[in-house]
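request received
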Amino acid sequence: MRNKPKPSVFSGLSHLALVIWALLIILPLLWTFLAAFKNNTEIFGDALQLPAEVRWENWARAWDKAHVGTYMINTVVVVFFGTAGTMLFGSMAAYVLARYTFPGQRLIYLLFVAGMAFPVFLAIGPLFFVVKQFGLLDSHVGLVIVYIAYSLPFTVFFLAAFFRTLPEAVAEAAKIDGASHTRTFFQVMLPMAKPGIISITIFNVLGQWNQYLLPLALVPGDKEKWVITQGIADISTIAGYEADWPALFAALNLAIIPVLVVYIIFQRQIQSGLGAGALK
Amino acid sequence: MSTERLRKYGFVAGFLVVPLTLYLVFVISPYIQAFQLALTSWNGYQRNPTYVGLANFGKLFDDEVFWQAIRNHAVILLVLPLLTIAFALFFAFLLNLGGGSRGAGMRGVWGSTFYKVVFFAPQVLAVAVVGVLWKAIFRPDESGVVNGALIKMGLDPVGWLTEPSLALWSLLAVMIWQAVGFYVVLFSAGMAAIPRDYFEAAALDGAGRFRLFFSITLPLLRDTIQVGWVYLGIAAFDCFALIQVLSVDAGGPDGATTVLPVEIYKTAFSYNKVGYASAMGVALFFLTITFAVLTLRVSRREKIEL
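response:
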Protein backbone atom coordinates (compact mmCIF):
# COMPACT_ATOMS: atom_id res chain seq x y z
CA MET A 1 0.00 0.00 0.00
CA ARG A 2 1.42 3.33 -1.07
CA ASN A 3 1.68 5.92 1.65
CA LYS A 4 -1.13 8.39 1.31
CA PRO A 5 0.45 11.82 1.08
CA LYS A 6 -0.16 13.97 4.13
CA PRO A 7 -2.48 16.86 3.36
CA SER A 8 -0.67 20.15 3.72
CA VAL A 9 -1.46 23.83 3.61
CA PHE A 10 0.76 24.22 0.57
CA SER A 11 -1.12 21.53 -1.31
CA GLY A 12 -4.40 23.27 -0.52
CA LEU A 13 -3.05 26.61 -1.67
CA SER A 14 -1.77 24.96 -4.84
CA HIS A 15 -5.24 23.70 -5.63
CA LEU A 16 -6.74 27.07 -4.79
CA ALA A 17 -4.51 28.88 -7.30
CA LEU A 18 -5.01 26.22 -9.95
CA VAL A 19 -8.80 26.19 -9.44
CA ILE A 20 -8.97 29.96 -9.74
CA TRP A 21 -7.21 29.87 -13.11
CA ALA A 22 -9.33 26.91 -14.23
CA LEU A 23 -12.44 28.94 -13.40
CA LEU A 24 -11.09 31.92 -15.35
CA ILE A 25 -10.91 29.57 -18.34
CA ILE A 26 -14.21 27.76 -17.84
CA LEU A 27 -16.52 30.57 -16.70
CA PRO A 28 -16.28 32.75 -19.85
CA LEU A 29 -17.01 29.70 -22.00
CA LEU A 30 -19.84 28.60 -19.72
CA TRP A 31 -21.35 32.09 -19.67
CA THR A 32 -21.48 32.30 -23.46
CA PHE A 33 -22.96 28.80 -23.58
CA LEU A 34 -25.80 29.78 -21.24
CA ALA A 35 -26.30 33.08 -23.08
CA ALA A 36 -26.96 31.07 -26.23
CA PHE A 37 -30.23 29.90 -24.67
CA LYS A 38 -31.43 33.33 -23.53
CA ASN A 39 -33.47 36.01 -25.27
CA ASN A 40 -32.46 39.66 -25.63
CA THR A 41 -34.40 40.70 -22.53
CA GLU A 42 -32.56 38.19 -20.38
CA ILE A 43 -29.19 39.05 -21.90
CA PHE A 44 -29.66 42.76 -21.20
CA GLY A 45 -31.49 42.22 -17.94
CA ASP A 46 -29.09 40.35 -15.73
CA ALA A 47 -25.88 38.90 -17.12
CA LEU A 48 -25.64 36.47 -14.22
CA GLN A 49 -29.10 34.91 -14.42
CA LEU A 50 -29.83 31.53 -15.97
CA PRO A 51 -31.99 31.25 -19.11
CA ALA A 52 -35.68 30.86 -18.31
CA GLU A 53 -36.09 28.13 -20.91
CA VAL A 54 -33.96 26.19 -23.38
CA ARG A 55 -34.29 28.13 -26.64
CA TRP A 56 -32.90 25.96 -29.40
CA GLU A 57 -34.30 28.38 -31.98
CA ASN A 58 -31.31 30.64 -31.26
CA TRP A 59 -29.04 27.89 -32.55
CA ALA A 60 -31.22 27.28 -35.59
CA ARG A 61 -31.04 30.98 -36.49
CA ALA A 62 -27.27 30.95 -36.04
CA TRP A 63 -26.87 27.90 -38.25
CA ASP A 64 -29.17 29.04 -41.06
CA LYS A 65 -29.77 32.78 -41.03
CA ALA A 66 -26.27 33.69 -39.83
CA HIS A 67 -24.74 31.04 -42.12
CA VAL A 68 -22.61 29.41 -39.44
CA GLY A 69 -23.30 26.05 -41.06
CA THR A 70 -21.86 27.30 -44.35
CA TYR A 71 -18.84 28.81 -42.61
CA MET A 72 -18.12 25.60 -40.71
CA ILE A 73 -18.34 23.43 -43.80
CA ASN A 74 -16.16 25.84 -45.76
CA THR A 75 -13.56 25.79 -43.01
CA VAL A 76 -13.49 22.00 -42.79
CA VAL A 77 -13.08 21.68 -46.56
CA VAL A 78 -10.35 24.32 -46.80
CA VAL A 79 -8.40 23.05 -43.79
CA PHE A 80 -8.72 19.43 -44.90
CA PHE A 81 -7.27 20.05 -48.35
CA GLY A 82 -4.86 22.69 -47.06
CA THR A 83 -3.39 20.34 -44.49
CA ALA A 84 -3.37 17.33 -46.82
CA GLY A 85 -1.50 19.35 -49.44
CA THR A 86 0.88 20.79 -46.88
CA MET A 87 1.79 17.38 -45.49
CA LEU A 88 2.22 15.78 -48.91
CA PHE A 89 4.36 18.50 -50.48
CA GLY A 90 6.09 19.31 -47.21
CA SER A 91 7.10 15.67 -46.72
CA MET A 92 8.34 15.37 -50.29
CA ALA A 93 10.43 18.52 -50.10
CA ALA A 94 11.74 17.76 -46.59
CA TYR A 95 12.70 14.21 -47.56
CA VAL A 96 14.84 15.07 -50.57
CA LEU A 97 16.37 18.11 -48.85
CA ALA A 98 17.30 16.02 -45.80
CA ARG A 99 18.53 12.81 -47.41
CA TYR A 100 19.89 13.67 -50.86
CA THR A 101 22.84 15.77 -51.93
CA PHE A 102 22.42 17.61 -55.20
CA PRO A 103 23.37 21.01 -56.66
CA GLY A 104 21.33 23.75 -54.98
CA GLN A 105 20.29 21.54 -52.08
CA ARG A 106 21.53 23.87 -49.36
CA LEU A 107 20.25 26.99 -51.11
CA ILE A 108 16.75 25.56 -51.49
CA TYR A 109 16.69 24.40 -47.88
CA LEU A 110 17.74 27.85 -46.64
CA LEU A 111 15.11 29.40 -48.91
CA PHE A 112 12.39 27.40 -47.15
CA VAL A 113 13.76 28.10 -43.68
CA ALA A 114 14.01 31.82 -44.44
CA GLY A 115 10.25 31.84 -44.94
CA MET A 116 9.83 31.38 -41.20
CA ALA A 117 11.61 34.69 -40.55
CA PHE A 118 9.39 36.83 -42.76
CA PRO A 119 6.14 38.13 -41.24
CA VAL A 120 3.23 37.37 -43.58
CA PHE A 121 2.15 41.00 -43.26
CA LEU A 122 5.18 42.03 -45.29
CA ALA A 123 3.71 40.20 -48.27
CA ILE A 124 -0.04 40.52 -47.78
CA GLY A 125 -0.51 43.41 -50.23
CA PRO A 126 1.50 41.88 -53.10
CA LEU A 127 0.04 38.43 -52.34
CA PHE A 128 -3.46 39.80 -52.97
CA PHE A 129 -2.41 40.85 -56.47
CA VAL A 130 -0.56 37.61 -57.23
CA VAL A 131 -3.68 35.63 -56.29
CA LYS A 132 -5.81 38.06 -58.29
CA GLN A 133 -3.64 37.54 -61.38
CA PHE A 134 -4.30 33.80 -61.17
CA GLY A 135 -8.04 34.48 -60.93
CA LEU A 136 -8.14 32.84 -57.50
CA LEU A 137 -9.63 35.61 -55.35
CA ASP A 138 -12.85 34.65 -53.51
CA SER A 139 -11.95 31.04 -54.24
CA HIS A 140 -11.40 28.10 -51.92
CA VAL A 141 -8.86 26.69 -54.35
CA GLY A 142 -6.88 29.92 -54.02
CA LEU A 143 -7.13 29.84 -50.25
CA VAL A 144 -5.99 26.20 -50.09
CA ILE A 145 -3.00 26.91 -52.33
CA VAL A 146 -1.94 29.89 -50.22
CA TYR A 147 -2.42 27.95 -46.96
CA ILE A 148 -0.16 25.22 -48.34
CA ALA A 149 2.47 27.70 -49.52
CA TYR A 150 2.63 29.54 -46.18
CA SER A 151 2.65 26.32 -44.13
CA LEU A 152 5.58 24.87 -46.08
CA PRO A 153 8.47 26.73 -44.38
CA PHE A 154 7.90 25.34 -40.91
CA THR A 155 6.73 21.95 -42.17
CA VAL A 156 9.82 21.48 -44.33
CA PHE A 157 12.09 22.68 -41.54
CA PHE A 158 10.57 20.37 -38.94
CA LEU A 159 10.26 17.25 -41.10
CA ALA A 160 13.72 17.68 -42.62
CA ALA A 161 15.15 17.53 -39.10
CA PHE A 162 13.04 14.43 -38.49
CA PHE A 163 13.97 12.64 -41.73
CA ARG A 164 17.62 13.32 -40.97
CA THR A 165 17.37 11.17 -37.86
CA LEU A 166 16.11 8.08 -39.68
CA PRO A 167 18.71 5.31 -39.97
CA GLU A 168 20.60 5.06 -43.25
CA ALA A 169 20.75 1.26 -43.00
CA VAL A 170 17.02 0.92 -43.64
CA ALA A 171 17.17 3.04 -46.79
CA GLU A 172 20.19 1.05 -47.97
CA ALA A 173 18.40 -2.24 -47.36
CA ALA A 174 15.41 -1.06 -49.38
CA LYS A 175 17.74 0.01 -52.18
CA ILE A 176 19.48 -3.38 -52.25
CA ASP A 177 16.07 -5.00 -52.50
CA GLY A 178 15.61 -3.02 -55.69
CA ALA A 179 13.09 -0.53 -54.34
CA SER A 180 12.86 2.67 -56.36
CA HIS A 181 13.37 6.05 -54.69
CA THR A 182 9.64 6.67 -54.76
CA ARG A 183 8.79 3.32 -53.20
CA THR A 184 11.44 3.78 -50.50
CA PHE A 185 9.87 7.11 -49.61
CA PHE A 186 6.23 6.03 -49.48
CA GLN A 187 6.59 2.52 -48.08
CA VAL A 188 9.64 2.77 -45.82
CA MET A 189 10.66 6.27 -44.80
CA LEU A 190 7.23 7.87 -44.55
CA PRO A 191 5.86 5.21 -42.16
CA MET A 192 8.99 5.55 -40.02
CA ALA A 193 8.44 9.32 -39.84
CA LYS A 194 4.88 8.83 -38.58
CA PRO A 195 5.34 10.40 -35.10
CA GLY A 196 6.77 13.59 -36.58
CA ILE A 197 4.11 13.68 -39.28
CA ILE A 198 1.30 13.33 -36.74
CA SER A 199 2.70 16.18 -34.64
CA ILE A 200 3.15 18.54 -37.55
CA THR A 201 -0.24 17.62 -39.04
CA ILE A 202 -1.96 18.67 -35.82
CA PHE A 203 0.14 21.83 -35.74
CA ASN A 204 -0.92 22.68 -39.29
CA VAL A 205 -4.61 21.84 -38.77
CA LEU A 206 -4.80 24.19 -35.79
CA GLY A 207 -2.75 26.85 -37.55
CA GLN A 208 -4.91 26.79 -40.66
CA TRP A 209 -8.13 26.56 -38.65
CA ASN A 210 -6.98 29.63 -36.73
CA GLN A 211 -6.09 31.60 -39.86
CA TYR A 212 -7.82 34.97 -40.14
CA LEU A 213 -5.67 37.37 -42.16
CA LEU A 214 -5.42 35.23 -45.28
CA PRO A 215 -9.16 34.54 -45.69
CA LEU A 216 -9.94 38.17 -44.81
CA ALA A 217 -7.62 39.44 -47.54
CA LEU A 218 -8.16 36.75 -50.19
CA VAL A 219 -11.86 35.90 -49.81
CA PRO A 220 -13.23 39.38 -49.11
CA GLY A 221 -16.36 39.47 -51.24
CA ASP A 222 -18.52 36.37 -51.49
CA LYS A 223 -19.91 35.62 -48.01
CA GLU A 224 -20.93 32.13 -49.10
CA LYS A 225 -17.22 31.35 -49.37
CA TRP A 226 -16.21 32.62 -45.94
CA VAL A 227 -14.50 30.49 -43.30
CA ILE A 228 -15.58 30.47 -39.66
CA THR A 229 -13.07 33.03 -38.39
CA GLN A 230 -14.20 35.82 -40.70
CA GLY A 231 -17.82 34.68 -40.42
CA ILE A 232 -17.87 34.86 -36.61
CA ALA A 233 -16.22 38.29 -36.64
CA ASP A 234 -18.84 39.48 -39.13
CA ILE A 235 -21.74 38.05 -37.10
CA SER A 236 -20.35 39.85 -34.07
CA THR A 237 -20.60 43.15 -35.94
CA ILE A 238 -24.04 42.44 -37.41
CA ALA A 239 -25.43 41.35 -34.04
CA GLY A 240 -25.23 44.98 -32.97
CA TYR A 241 -27.35 46.21 -35.89
CA GLU A 242 -29.92 43.44 -35.88
CA ALA A 243 -30.03 43.24 -32.07
CA ASP A 244 -29.87 39.47 -32.21
CA TRP A 245 -27.41 38.71 -29.43
CA PRO A 246 -28.77 35.22 -28.70
CA ALA A 247 -27.92 34.12 -32.25
CA LEU A 248 -24.43 35.56 -31.85
CA PHE A 249 -23.84 33.54 -28.70
CA ALA A 250 -25.23 30.44 -30.37
CA ALA A 251 -22.95 31.07 -33.36
CA LEU A 252 -20.02 31.50 -31.01
CA ASN A 253 -20.78 28.16 -29.38
CA LEU A 254 -21.21 26.45 -32.74
CA ALA A 255 -17.65 27.61 -33.48
CA ILE A 256 -16.26 26.67 -30.06
CA ILE A 257 -17.91 23.41 -29.03
CA PRO A 258 -16.85 21.15 -31.94
CA VAL A 259 -13.25 22.29 -31.51
CA LEU A 260 -13.33 21.64 -27.76
CA VAL A 261 -14.86 18.20 -28.32
CA VAL A 262 -12.14 17.25 -30.79
CA TYR A 263 -9.57 18.70 -28.40
CA ILE A 264 -10.81 16.67 -25.44
CA ILE A 265 -10.71 13.48 -27.51
CA PHE A 266 -7.22 14.10 -28.91
CA GLN A 267 -5.80 16.28 -26.17
CA ARG A 268 -2.56 14.37 -25.72
CA GLN A 269 -1.75 14.43 -29.43
CA ILE A 270 -2.81 18.06 -29.74
CA GLN A 271 -0.62 19.17 -26.85
CA SER A 272 2.41 17.37 -28.29
CA GLY A 273 1.53 18.58 -31.80
CA LEU A 274 1.47 22.23 -30.76
CA GLY A 275 4.52 21.61 -28.61
CA ALA A 276 6.35 20.35 -31.70
CA GLY A 277 6.76 23.94 -32.76
CA ALA A 278 8.55 24.75 -29.54
CA LEU A 279 11.20 22.09 -29.91
CA LYS A 280 12.70 23.31 -33.18
CA MET B 1 25.82 4.48 -62.43
CA SER B 2 24.83 7.17 -64.89
CA THR B 3 21.31 5.73 -65.09
CA GLU B 4 21.08 5.61 -61.30
CA ARG B 5 22.28 9.21 -61.13
CA LEU B 6 19.64 10.30 -63.63
CA ARG B 7 17.00 8.40 -61.69
CA LYS B 8 18.08 10.06 -58.46
CA TYR B 9 18.04 13.58 -59.89
CA GLY B 10 14.73 12.87 -61.60
CA PHE B 11 13.27 11.79 -58.28
CA VAL B 12 14.65 14.84 -56.49
CA ALA B 13 13.41 17.23 -59.16
CA GLY B 14 10.01 15.54 -59.29
CA PHE B 15 9.57 15.79 -55.53
CA LEU B 16 10.66 19.42 -55.37
CA VAL B 17 8.91 20.91 -58.40
CA VAL B 18 5.44 21.36 -56.86
CA PRO B 19 6.39 22.54 -53.35
CA LEU B 20 9.10 24.80 -54.70
CA THR B 21 6.85 26.31 -57.37
CA LEU B 22 4.02 27.00 -54.90
CA TYR B 23 6.52 28.49 -52.50
CA LEU B 24 8.31 30.70 -55.01
CA VAL B 25 5.10 32.02 -56.58
CA PHE B 26 3.02 32.65 -53.46
CA VAL B 27 5.62 33.30 -50.75
CA ILE B 28 8.98 34.41 -52.13
CA SER B 29 7.59 36.46 -55.02
CA PRO B 30 5.21 38.55 -52.84
CA TYR B 31 8.03 39.14 -50.35
CA ILE B 32 10.32 40.41 -53.07
CA GLN B 33 7.53 42.53 -54.52
CA ALA B 34 6.91 44.03 -51.08
CA PHE B 35 10.45 45.37 -50.92
CA GLN B 36 10.04 46.79 -54.43
CA LEU B 37 6.59 48.29 -53.83
CA ALA B 38 7.80 49.91 -50.61
CA LEU B 39 9.68 52.31 -52.89
CA THR B 40 6.56 53.26 -54.89
CA SER B 41 3.29 55.10 -54.39
CA TRP B 42 1.28 52.28 -55.99
CA ASN B 43 -2.42 52.22 -55.15
CA GLY B 44 -3.10 48.79 -56.59
CA TYR B 45 -4.77 50.06 -59.76
CA GLN B 46 -2.21 52.09 -61.68
CA ARG B 47 -0.62 50.13 -64.50
CA ASN B 48 2.87 51.32 -63.68
CA PRO B 49 3.74 52.17 -60.06
CA THR B 50 5.40 55.54 -59.58
CA TYR B 51 8.87 55.21 -58.09
CA VAL B 52 9.32 57.48 -55.06
CA GLY B 53 12.56 56.20 -53.53
CA LEU B 54 12.57 56.34 -49.75
CA ALA B 55 9.70 58.85 -49.51
CA ASN B 56 7.39 56.21 -48.02
CA PHE B 57 9.83 55.64 -45.18
CA GLY B 58 10.26 59.35 -44.56
CA LYS B 59 6.49 59.67 -44.41
CA LEU B 60 6.36 56.67 -42.10
CA PHE B 61 8.70 58.28 -39.58
CA ASP B 62 6.47 61.36 -39.52
CA ASP B 63 3.34 59.25 -39.08
CA GLU B 64 1.99 59.44 -35.51
CA VAL B 65 -0.07 56.28 -36.06
CA PHE B 66 3.13 54.39 -36.90
CA TRP B 67 4.80 55.49 -33.68
CA GLN B 68 1.70 54.70 -31.64
CA ALA B 69 1.82 51.19 -33.10
CA ILE B 70 5.53 50.91 -32.23
CA ARG B 71 4.84 51.98 -28.63
CA ASN B 72 2.07 49.39 -28.39
CA HIS B 73 4.39 46.70 -29.72
CA ALA B 74 6.94 47.70 -27.08
CA VAL B 75 4.39 47.38 -24.27
CA ILE B 76 3.12 44.05 -25.60
CA LEU B 77 6.67 42.77 -26.15
CA LEU B 78 7.47 43.44 -22.51
CA VAL B 79 4.24 42.51 -20.73
CA LEU B 80 3.04 39.50 -22.74
CA PRO B 81 6.15 37.30 -22.28
CA LEU B 82 6.79 38.45 -18.73
CA LEU B 83 3.33 37.74 -17.33
CA THR B 84 2.62 34.69 -19.47
CA ILE B 85 5.88 32.99 -18.51
CA ALA B 86 5.55 34.00 -14.86
CA PHE B 87 2.03 32.58 -14.61
CA ALA B 88 2.99 29.46 -16.56
CA LEU B 89 6.05 28.76 -14.41
CA PHE B 90 3.98 29.27 -11.28
CA PHE B 91 1.24 26.87 -12.38
CA ALA B 92 3.68 24.33 -13.83
CA PHE B 93 5.61 24.33 -10.55
CA LEU B 94 2.42 23.78 -8.56
CA LEU B 95 1.36 20.98 -10.88
CA ASN B 96 4.69 19.20 -10.55
CA LEU B 97 5.73 19.95 -6.97
CA GLY B 98 2.71 21.52 -5.33
CA GLY B 99 1.36 18.36 -3.72
CA GLY B 100 1.83 17.06 -0.19
CA SER B 101 5.18 15.89 1.12
CA ARG B 102 5.96 12.22 1.57
CA GLY B 103 9.18 11.61 3.38
CA ALA B 104 11.86 13.54 1.55
CA GLY B 105 10.01 13.45 -1.75
CA MET B 106 7.77 16.06 -3.29
CA ARG B 107 5.09 15.36 -5.80
CA GLY B 108 2.56 17.06 -8.00
CA VAL B 109 -1.02 17.81 -7.03
CA TRP B 110 -3.61 15.19 -7.81
CA GLY B 111 -5.69 16.06 -10.86
CA SER B 112 -2.78 17.69 -12.68
CA THR B 113 -3.90 16.18 -15.99
CA PHE B 114 -7.32 17.77 -15.60
CA TYR B 115 -5.79 21.18 -14.95
CA LYS B 116 -3.49 20.90 -17.97
CA VAL B 117 -6.40 19.96 -20.23
CA VAL B 118 -8.47 22.90 -19.00
CA PHE B 119 -5.60 25.42 -19.11
CA PHE B 120 -4.63 24.40 -22.64
CA ALA B 121 -8.17 24.65 -24.06
CA PRO B 122 -8.06 28.33 -25.13
CA GLN B 123 -5.04 27.48 -27.26
CA VAL B 124 -7.13 25.42 -29.69
CA LEU B 125 -9.76 28.13 -30.17
CA ALA B 126 -9.25 30.37 -33.19
CA VAL B 127 -8.01 33.80 -32.11
CA ALA B 128 -10.84 35.51 -34.00
CA VAL B 129 -13.34 33.39 -32.05
CA VAL B 130 -11.61 34.27 -28.78
CA GLY B 131 -11.87 37.91 -29.82
CA VAL B 132 -15.63 37.64 -30.36
CA LEU B 133 -16.00 35.78 -27.05
CA TRP B 134 -14.22 38.47 -25.04
CA LYS B 135 -15.94 41.28 -26.93
CA ALA B 136 -19.21 39.91 -25.55
CA ILE B 137 -17.74 39.57 -22.07
CA PHE B 138 -16.31 43.10 -22.09
CA ARG B 139 -19.45 44.78 -23.45
CA PRO B 140 -19.79 48.25 -21.87
CA ASP B 141 -23.34 47.77 -20.59
CA GLU B 142 -25.06 45.18 -18.40
CA SER B 143 -25.19 42.64 -21.23
CA GLY B 144 -21.47 42.07 -20.67
CA VAL B 145 -20.89 39.68 -17.79
CA VAL B 146 -18.10 41.68 -16.15
CA ASN B 147 -19.97 44.97 -16.15
CA GLY B 148 -23.20 43.12 -15.42
CA ALA B 149 -21.61 41.85 -12.22
CA LEU B 150 -20.26 45.30 -11.33
CA ILE B 151 -23.63 46.95 -11.92
CA LYS B 152 -25.36 44.30 -9.84
CA MET B 153 -23.01 45.18 -6.98
CA GLY B 154 -23.95 48.83 -7.35
CA LEU B 155 -20.66 49.84 -8.98
CA ASP B 156 -20.11 51.81 -12.17
CA PRO B 157 -19.41 49.87 -15.37
CA VAL B 158 -15.84 49.99 -16.68
CA GLY B 159 -14.93 50.79 -20.28
CA TRP B 160 -12.61 47.81 -20.69
CA LEU B 161 -12.32 48.32 -24.44
CA THR B 162 -13.63 51.86 -24.83
CA GLU B 163 -11.34 53.63 -22.35
CA PRO B 164 -8.14 54.54 -24.25
CA SER B 165 -5.89 54.15 -21.21
CA LEU B 166 -7.36 50.74 -20.37
CA ALA B 167 -8.04 49.11 -23.74
CA LEU B 168 -4.54 47.80 -24.43
CA TRP B 169 -4.37 46.21 -20.98
CA SER B 170 -7.70 44.48 -21.53
CA LEU B 171 -6.40 43.07 -24.80
CA LEU B 172 -3.19 41.96 -23.07
CA ALA B 173 -5.26 40.16 -20.44
CA VAL B 174 -7.00 38.19 -23.19
CA MET B 175 -3.70 37.34 -24.90
CA ILE B 176 -2.32 36.06 -21.61
CA TRP B 177 -5.55 34.16 -20.92
CA GLN B 178 -5.15 32.30 -24.20
CA ALA B 179 -1.38 31.77 -24.05
CA VAL B 180 -0.66 30.67 -20.47
CA GLY B 181 -1.97 27.13 -20.91
CA PHE B 182 0.40 26.33 -23.78
CA TYR B 183 3.40 27.29 -21.68
CA VAL B 184 2.08 25.46 -18.62
CA VAL B 185 2.16 22.27 -20.69
CA LEU B 186 5.55 23.14 -22.17
CA PHE B 187 7.14 23.96 -18.81
CA SER B 188 5.47 20.98 -17.11
CA ALA B 189 7.13 18.69 -19.64
CA GLY B 190 10.44 20.43 -18.96
CA MET B 191 10.04 20.08 -15.20
CA ALA B 192 8.98 16.45 -15.47
CA ALA B 193 12.25 15.79 -17.32
CA ILE B 194 14.32 17.05 -14.38
CA PRO B 195 15.57 13.98 -12.46
CA ARG B 196 13.63 13.46 -9.24
CA ASP B 197 16.93 12.90 -7.38
CA TYR B 198 17.86 16.57 -7.68
CA PHE B 199 14.79 17.62 -5.73
CA GLU B 200 15.07 14.87 -3.15
CA ALA B 201 18.75 15.60 -2.49
CA ALA B 202 17.99 19.29 -2.05
CA ALA B 203 15.01 18.54 0.18
CA LEU B 204 17.21 16.35 2.41
CA ASP B 205 19.46 19.38 2.79
CA GLY B 206 16.46 21.23 4.14
CA ALA B 207 15.64 23.27 1.04
CA GLY B 208 12.05 24.49 0.90
CA ARG B 209 9.92 24.75 -2.22
CA PHE B 210 10.87 28.30 -3.08
CA ARG B 211 14.56 27.50 -2.90
CA LEU B 212 13.92 24.40 -5.01
CA PHE B 213 12.26 26.59 -7.60
CA PHE B 214 14.99 29.21 -7.89
CA SER B 215 18.00 26.91 -7.41
CA ILE B 216 16.98 23.87 -9.43
CA THR B 217 13.85 24.32 -11.53
CA LEU B 218 14.57 27.73 -13.01
CA PRO B 219 18.20 27.11 -14.07
CA LEU B 220 17.46 23.74 -15.62
CA LEU B 221 14.47 25.13 -17.46
CA ARG B 222 16.38 28.05 -18.95
CA ASP B 223 16.44 26.76 -22.52
CA THR B 224 12.72 26.02 -22.51
CA ILE B 225 11.96 29.46 -21.09
CA GLN B 226 14.08 31.03 -23.82
CA VAL B 227 12.07 29.19 -26.47
CA GLY B 228 8.92 30.49 -24.82
CA TRP B 229 10.26 34.02 -24.81
CA VAL B 230 11.09 33.90 -28.52
CA TYR B 231 7.65 32.52 -29.34
CA LEU B 232 5.84 35.16 -27.32
CA GLY B 233 8.07 37.86 -28.77
CA ILE B 234 7.10 36.83 -32.27
CA ALA B 235 3.45 36.77 -31.19
CA ALA B 236 3.90 40.31 -29.85
CA PHE B 237 4.70 41.49 -33.38
CA ASP B 238 1.48 39.97 -34.70
CA CYS B 239 -1.71 40.28 -32.59
CA PHE B 240 -3.62 41.05 -35.80
CA ALA B 241 -6.63 38.78 -35.39
CA LEU B 242 -7.33 39.67 -31.77
CA ILE B 243 -7.00 43.42 -32.20
CA GLN B 244 -8.82 43.45 -35.54
CA VAL B 245 -11.80 41.66 -33.97
CA LEU B 246 -11.78 42.70 -30.32
CA SER B 247 -10.69 46.34 -30.21
CA VAL B 248 -12.93 49.30 -30.98
CA ASP B 249 -12.68 50.17 -34.69
CA ALA B 250 -9.76 47.76 -35.18
CA GLY B 251 -6.96 49.47 -33.29
CA GLY B 252 -8.99 52.02 -31.39
CA PRO B 253 -10.19 53.83 -29.51
CA ASP B 254 -8.19 56.56 -31.26
CA GLY B 255 -5.32 54.24 -32.11
CA ALA B 256 -4.80 53.26 -28.47
CA THR B 257 -4.46 49.56 -29.35
CA THR B 258 -3.24 49.64 -32.91
CA VAL B 259 -0.32 47.52 -34.09
CA LEU B 260 1.58 47.44 -37.36
CA PRO B 261 -0.24 44.40 -38.80
CA VAL B 262 -3.58 46.16 -38.31
CA GLU B 263 -2.26 49.34 -39.93
CA ILE B 264 -0.75 47.37 -42.81
CA TYR B 265 -4.07 45.64 -43.46
CA LYS B 266 -6.01 48.93 -43.29
CA THR B 267 -3.55 50.81 -45.46
CA ALA B 268 -3.43 48.12 -48.13
CA PHE B 269 -7.11 47.15 -48.29
CA SER B 270 -9.13 50.09 -46.92
CA TYR B 271 -7.01 53.00 -48.11
CA ASN B 272 -5.55 51.29 -51.21
CA LYS B 273 -2.03 52.49 -50.49
CA VAL B 274 -0.19 49.30 -51.34
CA GLY B 275 3.20 50.99 -51.62
CA TYR B 276 2.92 52.63 -48.21
CA ALA B 277 1.57 49.41 -46.67
CA SER B 278 4.59 47.57 -48.06
CA ALA B 279 6.88 50.13 -46.44
CA MET B 280 5.16 49.39 -43.13
CA GLY B 281 5.65 45.69 -43.81
CA VAL B 282 9.36 46.24 -44.37
CA ALA B 283 9.56 48.15 -41.09
CA LEU B 284 7.77 45.29 -39.32
CA PHE B 285 10.18 42.82 -40.90
CA PHE B 286 13.23 44.69 -39.63
CA LEU B 287 11.74 45.00 -36.14
CA THR B 288 11.07 41.25 -36.05
CA ILE B 289 14.56 40.41 -37.30
CA THR B 290 16.11 42.77 -34.76
CA PHE B 291 14.22 41.08 -31.95
CA ALA B 292 15.24 37.61 -33.16
CA VAL B 293 18.91 38.58 -33.49
CA LEU B 294 19.03 40.27 -30.08
CA THR B 295 17.36 37.28 -28.43
CA LEU B 296 19.74 34.80 -30.03
CA ARG B 297 22.68 36.98 -29.08
CA VAL B 298 21.62 37.06 -25.44
CA SER B 299 21.17 33.29 -25.31
CA ARG B 300 24.55 32.73 -26.96
CA ARG B 301 26.29 34.97 -24.43
CA GLU B 302 24.69 33.05 -21.58
CA LYS B 303 25.91 29.78 -23.06
CA ILE B 304 29.49 31.07 -23.18
CA GLU B 305 29.40 32.21 -19.56
CA LEU B 306 28.44 28.73 -18.34
